[in-house]
Write a structure and sequence with these properties.
- A six-stranded mixed β-sheet has the order 4-5-6-7-9-8, covered by helices on one side. Strands 3-2-1-10-11 form a five-stranded mixed β-sheet, with no helix packed on it.
- The protein starts with 23 loop residues before the first strand and ends with a strand.
- It has eight helices and eleven strands.
- By secondary structure, the protein is an alpha/beta fold.
- Helix content is 31%, strand content 20%.
- The chain is globular, with a radius of gyration of 18 Å.
């Protein structure tokens, strides 16, 4: 099934209604990041010079395992929470094109819809209108909402909170849109957020600005915030009401966790989740 692309900041999942009709499962993953394993071996300075020699055979292998496992699970959808590719879009556009071609060749083998979330490697640590436009051309809108069987999903571009110095107008538009989505959140059985960079790793009070954002999510009735970026599993609870889940990578690891993804079960009264490793195939 082709990767789904949002347009007009909305995404439609085929065959999925807005009402909760019974328990279902979705898969949340992050950081398939074609090219990072090579950089980890060769040195992170390669992001600045010599990256045109990069290879990503390991990422292709891990992604094929992921696709095979997800097809066996048969969830309602899968979502990749950022850093889809590793090559910086401004610095290495030709290499990024080759990574993108391999990504689509593998992920088009999924039998369920795949949704994409924008990460820092997808638009750059300091995004520009040009890198955002390129992302949208390659993967669809960088922020959007969707509904699946009573689950309201809000997909945000966390890079606007990391550095919006060159995309001020986009960041303001994003914020205005987010306010409107949060106003809708209590209309659904469950409402959750998907993003790349987490607001915190273990301590919800790590950053005052981000604490305010979690307050806003809590007040809107958001129950879960699913993230990636860290290449390890982490997370915690904000005021015992909103759970932030940091999911380790399908691709290269930065800690002791194994490559994997999260299986999320949605019931009428709760959402539960379990990290599954690619070794469990």
């Amino acid at each position: 099934m082709p990767v789904l692309r949002a347009s007009d900041h909305t995404l439609k999942i085929p065959g999925s209604g807005e009402e909760f009709t019974g328990e279902f499962t979705f898969v949340q993953a992050a950081d398939c990041q074609f090219g990072m394993e090579w950089v980890s071996r060769m040195g992170f300075h390669k992001h600045d010079e010599g990256y045109d020699e990069a290879t990503w055979e390991k990422e292709k292998e891990w992604s094929r395992s992921f696709v095979g496992m997800v097809n066996k699970i048969d969830p309602a959808f899968a979502i990749m929470c950022g850093d889809i590719l590793d090559a910086w879009p401004e610095k290495w556009p030709e290499t990024r094109d080759r990574q993108k071609a391999d990504f689509y060749e593998i992920y088009d083998q999924l039998k369920v819809p795949l949704l994409c979330v924008c990460g820092n490697h997808d638009v750059g640590n300091s995004p520009t209108p040009q890198t955002v436009d390129r992302y949208r051309s390659d993967f669809g809108d960088d922020w959007y909402s969707f509904v699946c069987r009573g689950l309201f999903g809000i997909v945000i571009n966390s890079q606007y909170y990391a550095d919006s110095s060159r995309v001020g107008d986009l960041a303001r538009e994003h914020e205005e849109w987010l306010e409107k989505q949060l106003a809708r959140a209590k209309d659904y059985t469950h409402s959750v957020v998907f993003q790349h960079i987490p607001w915190f790793l273990n301590d919800p009070n790590e950053d005052k600005l981000k604490t305010k954002l979690m307050e806003k999510f809590m007040d809107a009735g958001i129950s879960k915030v699913f993230c990636g970026h860290y290449h390890r599993n982490a997370g915690g609870w904000f005021k015992d009401q909103v759970e932030l889940i940091v999911t380790s990578a399908v691709g290269q690891q930065s800690g002791s966790d194994k490559n994997g993804f999260r299986v999320v079960k949605v019931a009428e009264n709760e959402i539960s989740h379990e990290y599954v490793t690619l070794d469990d195939v």
